[in-house]
Design goal:
With 336 residues, the chain is mainly alpha-helical. 55% of the residues lie in helices and 7% in strands. The protein folds into 2 domains: 6-183 and 300-329, HUPs (Rossmann fold), CATH 3.40.50.620; 217-295, Tyrosyl-Transfer RNA Synthetase (Orthogonal Bundle), CATH 1.10.240. The protein is built from 13 helices and 5 strands. Strands 1-2-3 form a 3-stranded parallel sheet. The protein is globular, with a radius of gyration of 21 Å. Bound molecules: tryptophanyl-5'AMP.
Length: 336
């Protein structure tokens, strides 16, 4: 809660181009929730999290800007939502350190994302990668978030955030709001188009595995056409048919239909037609986003102003919580 209003916070790492998984699992829900209720919303470009993997400086800067433009292009108005770069608000790093001291090694050792990333980047298993979820807890708790809309893969990080917050509140009284995860009805786990047992990921080496948000229509159609399915040629929504299930999930997330309704739409069709219909639906969904992104690219002044204003706003709220935390712990205030 902030100023008596329910609060929502979420964010994405600014590494590479975001995928249809990021969009359907998170960004689209942010926009939907935004229209629904009178909520105070914070959306971070989580660039501090991104450096747990080595980044090329020029690309890193460009990716962060692209991500910010995509948030706005998807429908998050920066005058109504606080969209900010995590690195512009030093309170994130500061609370991250403080919370490190209230988190146990054993808890971090259990994090599946750490295990996956450590296996993928065996040459750079840095301590930032290990304590990554604590920084994420700081992101959420600084804004007293009630609601955190994320994809399923972030559930474990939300649970540890709640554990850390409860532990801290148990020692010092009610300092942090205990956040709830918000997982959308569909699209919470979009799978790779090339291996539907693996989640769609922006770091996948095979570009055909993911739809990227700025892919043009031809590319989208081609990638769906190549999507891996099975050899039955029978459209059903079942765990035994992960490729088909994934296509139906994507279709449902875009059209807001249920899997039953979707399967009815596809009665009598073959896999080729299914892929085409899903591809068309996705291309249609992303087309306005692409146009708006292009306009924003030309409006540097508007975007820069939004970045500055929102960084100031985010800092105001984050510092308020941080001051409270430091006071509770017993840090000495700077004499005025
Ligand atoms: P990130 O950048 O990996 O992903 C951003 C959001 O996209 C969701 N997502 C997916 N949803 C459905 N299907 C997929 N294949 C898929 N891939 C990704 C993620 O669940 C996420 O919601 N640690 C976070 C970033 C973060 C954050 C935060 C999120 C940092 N601080 C505070 C919420 C609150 C991450 O790496 O997300």
């Amino acid at each position: 809660m902030i100023d008596g209003k329910k609060t929502m916070l979420s964010g994405m790492q600014s590494t590479g181009m975001i995928t249809l998984g990021n969009y359907l699992g998170a960004l689209k829900n942010w926009v939907n929730l935004n229209d629904e209720e009178d909520i105070k919303c914070f959306y971070g470009i989580m660039d501090l999290h991104s450096i747990t993997v080595r980044q090329n400086p020029a690309e890193f800067r460009k990716n962060a800007r692209t991500l910010l433009l995509l948030y706005i292009a998807a429908g998050l108005d920066p005058e109504k939502n606080c969209i900010f770069y995590q690195s512009h608000v030093p309170a994130h790093s500061e609370l991250g350190w403080i919370l490190d001291c209230y988190t146990y090694m054993g808890e971090m050792n259990r994090m599946t994302q750490f295990k996956d990333k450590a296996a993928k980047h065996a040459d750079n298993i840095n301590t930032g990668l290990f304590t990554y979820p604590v920084l994420m807890a700081a992101d959420i708790l600084l804004y007293q978030a009630d609601l955190v809309p994320v994809g399923k893969d972030q559930m474990q990080h939300l649970e540890i955030t709640r554990d850390i917050a409860n532990r801290f509140n148990g020692i010092y009284g009610d300092v942090f709001t205990i956040p709830e995860a918000y997982i959308g009805k569909s699209g919470a786990k979009i799978m790779s188009l090339q291996d539907p047992t693996k989640k769609m990921s922006k770091s996948d080496e095979n570009p055909n595995a993911s739809i990227y948000l700025l892919d043009d229509k031809d590319t989208i159609m081609r990638k769906f056409k190549r999507a891996v399915t099975d050899s039955d040629n029978c459209i059903a929504y079942s765990e035994d048919k992960p490729g088909i299930k994934n296509l139906i999930d994507i279709y449902c997330a875009v059209t807001k239909k249920t899997p039953d309704e979707a399967v009815k739409d596809f009665t009598g069709l073959g896999y080729g037609q299914l892929k085409e219909i899903v591809g068309e639906a996705v291309a249609e969904e992303l087309a306005p986003l692409y146009r708006r992104y292009d306009e924003l690219l030309k409006d540097k002044e508007y975007v820069d102003r939004a970045i500055k204003n929102n960084a100031e706003q985010a800092s105001y709220y984050a510092n308020k919580t941080l001051r409270k935390v430091k006071k509770k712990i017993g840090f000495t205030e700077m004499p005025r």
